[in-house]
Amino acid sequence: MGKHITTIPTGHFYIKNSANREGNAVIYIRYFVCGKYVEHSTDVKIPVNDWLEKSETVSSKNRKSRMLNLRLDQYRSSIDHQIMNCREHLTPQIVRDMMNGCYVPEEERKGRIDFIGFALDHIRQRYDRGQIAYTTYDNGRLSILAFQRYLQQYQNRKSITIAEMNVDIINRYINWRIQVKGNTPDGVNKTLAPLYKAIGYARDIGEMDIKTANTICTNYLETKSRKYTSDVDDRDVRYLTEEQVSKFLDLYDKVKYDATRKIMDIFLFSLYTCGLRFSDLLTLEWRHIDFERKTIRKNIFKNKTTLEIPMNDEGIAILDKWKGVNGRFVFDMLPEDFDLSDERILKNKRLSKNRNIQQSLKSVGQKMNLPFNLTIHVARHNKNYIYLNMR
């Protein structure tokens, strides 16, 4: 069996373009890497007639030939040296970076990735793969951007790499959120979660030191209350006021697309039925509705318990509009023959439909100038207010 020989690409000089009006042309260098030519200008310009194509050198008839040939040799040697010392698989892009003078060896490159961009990409990938719901994605994205603003405004840092992330930076951020923003420990932990997820992923793919990453990722605040207090903390509870509900209803006939109106129907129905979760709106069937008693009797998706939920006249009016659209599922988000026992497909459907609905509601909320994102979950926080005041 013969010895395996790795082919090391060799750089060759050539004149790429035709001569200009003065008869001069620029000398280029190129390497053949993975079936592709990678070329770059040497910035050496000579009369075309002074170039010796066979030897790839400047002719001695050029007064500066010695200096120019030395310059060409040094340029090629610098690239060859990087190629010889490259420990990773050589690609056209790597050689291109070497030619441009911006190549960083893999061992030195580790951890130099911008952390904010890395964290945003990671949470987006989790969302695109259906691992998290839209609300989780959007809240996480906002938390990452909030950390970026903190670094820019209070630490005078335009960016931070993965390698620069440490416990001290996180502790200062925690103190700032408590002392300046007035966040509760639970609120702080929620803002840290997407940052820690990204740090954990950086650790798993070898971009961050394991010990540093583990120390950061366990750095949550204690949230267990050890003393009874009669005060109710509702700072994180988002709901629509009576005025905002009226504004929502006013927008109903003004939105451009029927699809948006249908999504607004689903939100309003949750509002009028004690805050049904999206998963229960998705799987709500006509057989669950008792129009005479004005109730919904349904096996709740999350905890699998059967509940009887009262409906007001507004909720029933919405149902009347949806009659005849789908013979089985009220809001037509699943086909009539859908198998609810197929948990995997149901989960994919739930995440996909939820994503579209939350994005549409977010757009409606922006038209209302809400100070928070409008989501189906907001309707759950309105359940007591709506049932007691609007039936």
Which tags fit this structure?
single chain; 391 residues; mainly alpha; DNA polymerase, domain 1; hpI Integrase, Chain A; 3 domains; three-stranded antiparallel β-sheet; 15 helices; 48% helix; disordered C terminus
Description:
- With 391 residues, this protein is mainly alpha-helical.
- It has three domains: 12-106, no CATH class; 115-217, DNA polymerase, domain 1; 242-389, Orthogonal Bundle (hpI Integrase, Chain A), CATH 1.10.443.
- Helix content is 48%, strand content 11%.
- It is built from 15 helices and eight strands.
- It has helices at residues 65-84, 92-100, 106-109, 115-128, 134-154, 167-179, 185-204, 210-217, 242-252, 258-272, 278-282, 313-322, 343-367, 376-381, 383-389, and strands spanning 12-15, 24-33, 36-47, 51-52, 57-58, 289-290, 295-299, 306-310.
- The strands form three sheets. It has a three-stranded antiparallel β-sheet with strand order 1-2-3. A three-stranded antiparallel β-sheet has the order 6-7-8, with no helix packed on it. The chain has a two-stranded antiparallel sheet with strand order 4-5.
- Helix 5 packs across helix 7 (185-204) and helix 10 (258-272) runs antiparallel to helix 12 (313-322).
- It is elongated and about 105 Å long.
